[in-house]
Amino acid sequence: MIVSKLGSRRQKVYRAVQTEQGREVALKFIKLPPAVEWEQALAKIDREVVELQNLVHPGLVKVYGAGVDQERVFFASELIEGESLATVLSRRGKLTPDLVVEYGRQIADVLRYLHSKDLIHSKLTPDKILLTDEHRIKIADLRLNRPKKRRWDKTRRRELDTAAYMAPEQFRDGATQKSDFYTLGVILFEMLTGKLPYPPDTIGRMTKMKMKADVPSVASYIMNCPIWLDKIVSQMLSPDPKNRPHSASGIILAFDEIKNIDATKKSAISQISGGFNPLTIGTDKAEARRLLGIKKKKQKRVQKTHTPVIQTIAFQVVAFLAVACLIIYCLIPESPREIVSRATAMLQSDDSVQWGEAEILLKPLMAGDSEVKQDSETLFYVARRKSLVRNAERGLVTRLQTENVVDFGRAVQYQLDESDEAAKRIFTKLAASIDPDGRERHVYQESVVRLGELTNKKVLPTDIAELSEMIAVAKEVTSPAEMATAHDLLSEIVFTYSGRRDYKQLVAIAAEQLQLVKGRIKGEVDVVKKIGSEVDDSRE
């Protein structure tokens, strides 16, 4: 049953419900060439679906099946709750280099998987790249395309907006694995600059330009593009497939290296010493002089006059040095502390996109023995926790997440429906089963907080200093009522933090103090019993 329209106006994609399975799906309708015999086409599509269902990768949209509706053929696939990359780019214009590297690596990993199965995508565009709220990519519209093999249902008609992303050899020799690399280069270029490397004109003129024109440079459009990223994009856009990267694995390694360079904060001076100069990339000497305000000397002799200050050699040298210093200042990477500060500011925003960007910034800092490792890890899971709550409250936590995250989303929905007992049962299970120091600690932390709210129980702090102060206060209590409260508090600390590495010493102190409190309570009870016995004896 079709529910609503999805995607762009050009693509016929719909949200629908499979009534038998009781799940929502995405339906995409395709056109068959008039020359293809109907029954034969349906048999080939059925065989194709079987092979597509065997493809399993976290970056691929799952294919559920195919069918016919009013003599139209459709594919039913996993419904992704998110936006397409094309929609994001139309709204934001361009993305930050670190976000582009993250998306590029994920796309390259999908291509690596497809190529290992002797498949290619061949028609990847930003419309077919879907983004989840956690900045994970999902590639849709996959068919069984083989390198240099013509599809049985291929038509001669090409869409201009698809052709803009295709490699030049695809128009004459057919697509290969390296054609996918060219397409990835176009998408990276567009993410970084907000423009296509070659403007869409007619397919013929655009193809000729791809073959003959100089490869455009990202650095000629934006100043903050790392030289390494600019270089790999230029390699992918080479008209000669031999000059493009040799494999998707090599692209992934290159992106990992870019991340490592950003994490270690390699000096921008090494870029300039290596010949990188954003002012001169894609320009000739005359253009460089124009940018610097230096006029070329005229050849003809002119009458000597007083030279304006702006044209003196001293002024030009100072101006050149000032521009060079400005370039170096702009290119100097942020220090780990500055990244942490920027991520902290992002997390104070209400924009979920900024939370995701903060995650990407912080993740490299969590590795090794960085001085900001602990702060980065804490903020990283704060970002995940904020996204977790937002998605759960909007009902967006579905098949894209782990089982624990899906359960958390169900519990939050129960809370919103005021079904507190049902929510409490799920939060209790999550609090008891998730590793508090593991990769889903954000789910654990939020579950414990919500469980405390539902049971009207005080939620313990996570700060070790605060907990230590609470244990110290419990040690000083004297009255029976205070000792009972201390007993409950110490028991809760031992139960909550037992088994967590960071709290091992704290739990040992709390357990020792708990035994002392139990002894004192027992002593008080014995005293009361003794006094009661003496009173009874005196009465006799």
Q: What can you see in these coordinates?
A:
The radius of gyration is 32 Å and the shape is flat. It starts with a strand and ends with a helix. It has helices at 38-53, 85-92, 97-116, 160-163, 177-193, 203-212, 227-236, 248-264, 268-273, 285-292, 313-331, 336-347, 352-362, 373-394, 403-416, 420-433, 441-454, 464-475, 480-497, 504-539, and strands at residues 2-6, 13-18, 23-30, 63-69, 72-78, 83-84, 129-131, 137-139. It has a 5-stranded antiparallel sheet with strand order 1-2-3-5-4, with helices on one face. It is of the alpha+beta class and 540 residues long. The protein has 4 domains: 2-78, 2-Layer Sandwich (Phosphorylase Kinase, domain 1); 83-264, Transferase(Phosphotransferase) domain 1 (Transferase(Phosphotransferase), domain 1, Orthogonal Bundle); 336-454, no CATH class; 464-539.
Q: Can you count the helices?
A: 20
Into which percentage range does the β-strand content fall? 5-15%
Radius of gyration: 32 Å
Distance between the termini: 87 Å
Which percent range fits the helix content?
A: 40-55%
CATH topology of the largest domain: Transferase(Phosphotransferase), domain 1
Shape: flat
The overall strand count is: 8
Within the largest sheet, what's the order of strands?
1-2-3-5-4
Let me know the average pLDDT: 76
Helix/strand class: alpha+beta
The CATH architecture of the largest domain is Orthogonal Bundle
The residue ranges in which pLDDT falls below 50 over 5 or more consecutive positions are 265-294
> Could you spell the SSE succession in H and E letters?
EEEHEEEHHEEHHHHHHHHHHHHHHHHH
**Largest sheet: number of strands, sense, barrel closure:** 5 strands, antiparallel
Name the CATH superfamily assignment of the largest domain.
Transferase(Phosphotransferase) domain 1
Total separate domains: 4
In the CATH scheme, the class of the largest domain would be Mainly Alpha
